Amino acid sequence: MGLKLATTFAIMFLFALVYAVVFAIGIWFLPADLFGLLIMVGFTLLIVLFQYGISPYIIQWIYRIDWIPYENFERQYPHLSEAVDKVVALQGIKHPRMGIIHDGNPNAFTFGHTKNNARIVITDGILQFLDEEEQTAVVAHELGHVVHNDFIIMTVVFAIPLILLTIARWSYYAARFSGRRSGDRDEGGNIALLLLAIAVLSFISYYIGYLISLVVSRIREYYADEHSAELTEDPNTLSTALVKIAYGLLVGGSEVEIKERNKSKVRALRGLGIFDPKKASHFAVEGVGKAGTISNDAIQKAAGWDLFNPWAKYFQIFSTHPLPAKRIQRLNEQCETYGKSAEIDFSGARELKKLQVGKSMAGEFLTDVIVKILPSIIFVLLLIFTGLWVFGFFFSTPFSTLTTLQNLLLLWAVGFVIIGLGYIIRTSYMYRGGFEPKSVLDLVTVINVSPVRPVPAIIEGKIIGKGIPGYYFSDDLFFQDETGLLYIDYRFGLSIMDFFWAIARVNRLIGQKVRIRGWYRRGPSPYLQIDRLETESGKTYRNYSKHLTYIGAVIFFLIGAALFYFWFTLPF
After folding, report:
1. In the predicted model, what is the mean pLDDT of residues 540-553?
2. Of 303, 181, 292, residue with least CA distance to 247
3. Are 531 and 519 in contact (CB under 8 A)?
4. Is a pLDDT exceeding 50 seen at residue 353?
5. What DSSP designation does 497 have?
6. CA 139 – CA 126 distance, rounded (Å)
7. Cα–Cα distance measured from residue 283 to residue 305, given in angstroms and rounded to the nearest whole number
8. Beta-sheet pairing, 436-437 with 526-535
9. In terms of C-beta distances under 8 Å and separation of at least 24 residues, what long-range contacts does 28-32 make, across chains too?
């Protein structure tokens, strides 16, 4: 779900405020010419550089990271330090600063300014639930970001769309003020039209540039994967780590027994370095066969969402990280280079998908999309009809006698009531009843789930960490049952409530056995949205996100009722 802390929002607000102030000053005082535009672009670049400069310090501030002197790190984790030392020697760079977040949620990420002042952070979950080879593969992936200078490259890549957005906004506002600055109205009108054209083209270019920057980000992830394969000389090592991170189940047994069976454990990761930090909550599932090994059928079902669900294709477009199944397929292609056979096989995934959901999920996807935007569709249709009426489109048609102001008001009254019904339909669809006991394995192997089409479920297990490990104000949780791990999404619906939940409840819930009722969703990664959480001590916490969605329906019903009142009472 991204970083949802008040601190992060405050920092984002600070940059937005600075950006807005700069724009207000520039639009009012700078000339609407190339010189003014260059100054605005220069200010934008300064803001980007400022954010680049302070971001590592912000991360260190908002995460509880235990920094380990490298000498101690070598003694405690010699298999990891061996990989780090090898890269440092080959690349001629300084040792990265190593840190650990003490949280059961498996996680790994890297940050910094350059490859000579990088920081690499892993969590206790990585150390507990991946074997040593897989831990090395994950660290090697993060080292790939370091040696490829991704800190700098991605800053430049994402700065380009921001510059285009600056040009678009500057041109738009300059066009609005150009008439006031020009004594000649005709000249001012021509300048305004030119600036508006520049604004439209720049905004289109910004959007295209933003999508391209996401493609570049995904390519950089593939490069980091290749670095991991090269360093470990076995792409399968990272593949099995990704299976454990993205689709893992736990073998049954006590916590001690689980820790001792690292080879057969599979965990989830909401990754800042392994997976997209801006996307929704990651969780893991693995299948375990009779011999205690990972069940390939379970893996293929878990990967089936990545491979075949239309929602996966949609989310991939707007993601900074490739879907796990795509990364594993790419790693499989590299196995021959290292004389290895691919250990993760997706060849039977399509048949398993057909057995579960049939040949195509296009119909379900279309239904989901329509339900999700149903109120918006009705509102847009009302706007289109009103626009056609205003411009006299109906005056020369057989419907001209019906297009009176009185009938238009009636149409809007009926329309707002229908929009309210649309909200109710959408809420009923997205928050359906019929809660049944489920396990993590039951949920993760559902291929045709989506952010709109949930599986109502009741799960029982233990809270083992925060949704965002180490994050002081993480309002989400990380859950474990006998079969695996699941990201728990609190999402009350009001940011202030999420904030108070984070500071007052989350830390107290860690380590407690719980029973959670909620809606399992996937978009792009699996999570369960809380409806009701019960602790072993008898405390119950409710989440009213479902109830808040009905507020929209009530508002539109009231507006519709007011329009009906005016329709009945006003003379026409």
Report:
1. 89
2. 303
3. yes
4. yes
5. H
6. 10
7. 13
8. unpaired
9. 28/177, 31/181, 32/174, 32/175, 32/177, 32/178, 32/181, 32/191, 32/195
* Dihedral sign for Cα atoms in the order 259, 263, 265, 268: positive
Q: Which residue has the tokens 């969703």?
A: 521
Model confidence at 95: pLDDT above 90: yes
pLDDT digits (tens, 9 = 90+) for 37-57: 788 788 888 888 888 888 888
Question: What is the chain's mean pLDDT, rounded?
Answer: 82
Find the mean pLDDT for residues 85-107. Answer: 93
- The strands making up 119-123's β-sheet, listed across from edge to edge, are 66-68, 97-101, 119-123, 108-111
Has residue 278 got a pLDDT over 90?
no
223: left (phi over 0), alpha (psi -120 to 50) or beta: alpha
Which amino acid, residue 243? Answer: V
Asked if 247 and 302 touch (Cβ cutoff 8 Å), the reply is yes
Beta-bridge partner residues of 458: 437, 517
The residues assigned a catalytic role are 142
Give tens-digit pLDDT for 24-38. 666 666 665 667 778
Rg over CA atoms, the chain: 27
Distance CA 372, CA 454 (A): 13
**Across the strands, what pairs with 437?**
458
Strands (E), 432-525: 436-437, 455-466, 477-480, 485-489, 513-522
Q: Hey, what are 61's tokens?
A: 């501030």
